[in-house]
């Protein structure tokens, strides 16, 4: 019996594996700050899930006193309500960004983008030092990938719309039939 869904996922994985993969993306100061901010957002969402587990919280949450240059954007944007990721979580999110950037061009043709990115991340990054009671790092990175996919898809949509035909008026747009 032939499973067309399984074959489609295999085709997507094969296509992504055929792309040139380089994980040497060097993020500039601005991009690192944004990654840090988004890692903190993802940590904040995760803290709601593991609120009763002090071991889990201590491993994923960083300190407001983080002196790293990446934390500067979070300090500027925070009025006391933003979360700071731990160094291990930020390292994982930076690695996830590298995976995303290395596969960005091939993601347009994949059907199960999030699954492909998560599996590529799991191949590249080994998780150590986290409590076994929760799979927090996996959840944080998966949430980060969902956000990056959403932002990238929104950017692609704006690019396609910019290249589309412009109508002189709304009524001309309404009367135009697209085939």
Question: What do you see in this structure?
Answer:
The chain has 179 residues and is an all-alpha fold. The protein has one domain. Helices cover 63% and strands 0% of the residues. The protein is built from eight helices and no strands. The protein has helices at 4-18, 29-49, 54-60, 72-77, 87-103, 113-124, 136-163, 170-175. Helix 2 packs across helix 5 (87-103).
Topology readout:
Elements: H1 4-18, H2 29-49, H3 54-60, H4 72-77, H5 87-103, H6 113-124, H7 136-163, H8 170-175
Helix pairs in contact: 2-5, 2-7, 5-6, 5-7, 6-7
Short description:
With 179 residues, the chain is an all-alpha fold. The protein has helices at residues 4-18, 29-49, 54-60, 72-77, 87-103, 113-124, 136-163, 170-175.
Query: Helicity, in percent?
Result: 55-70%
> What is the CA-based Rg, rounded?
20 Å
Average residue pLDDT: 76
Sketch the major β-sheet.
none
- Please state the overall shape, judged from the principal axes of the Cα atoms: globular
Entry keywords:
single chain; 179 residues; mainly alpha; 8 helices; 0% strand; globular; disordered N terminus
